Amino acid sequence: MNYHRYYPVDVVNGEGTRCVLFVAGCEHQCPGCYNKSTWGVNSGSPFTQSLEDQIIKDLQDTEIKRQGLSLSGGDPLHPKNVPAILKLVKRVKSECDNKDIWLWTGYKLDELSADQQEVVSYIDVLIDGKFVQELADPRLLWRGSSNQIIYRFK
Fold it and tell me: Per its UniProt record, what SUPFAM superfamilies does this chain match (predicted)?
């Protein structure tokens, strides 16, 4: 898996102070997407064990408390991203007490493959659906267009 940006401290992409990872790869390629640079699955930089370890360390930091991890992109549920994302979310849940995981995807919840559903079983909040420019509304919280749905699982 490749990624574009990692923010160890963020207050925009989900509730509370968070760590945010923007991954590479999106097959939806929605017109009007604000993050077109992340579409290419081979764009960005390789996601390394070192970066995964840093995310865990940042989530465990007691000086700057984070509520959790946000995964965006690109699309974290792109089939090429699923193995690395699954490994990461499992590790967050096992090593980072009380941290929530938010994930944005262009896929609809009812369209997910078994592998994608396994990732979702570890997350707390899913924002699903493609960005639709005609339904864009800057007043929406946590989503870009009104067709996107916020699911709170836990």
Answer: Radical SAM enzymes
Give tens-digit pLDDT for 104-115.
999 999 999 999
Domain that holds residue 18: 2-152
**What is the reported pLDDT for 32?**
84
Q: What CATH number does residue 48 fall under?
A: 3.20.20.70
State the DSSP string of 33-95.
Answer: -TTGGG-STT-SEE--HHHHHHHHHHHH-SSS---EEEEEES-TTSTTTHHHHHHHHHHHHHH
Number of domains making up the chain? 1
Burial of residue 116 (number of CB atoms within 10 Å: 0-12, 13-18, 19+): buried
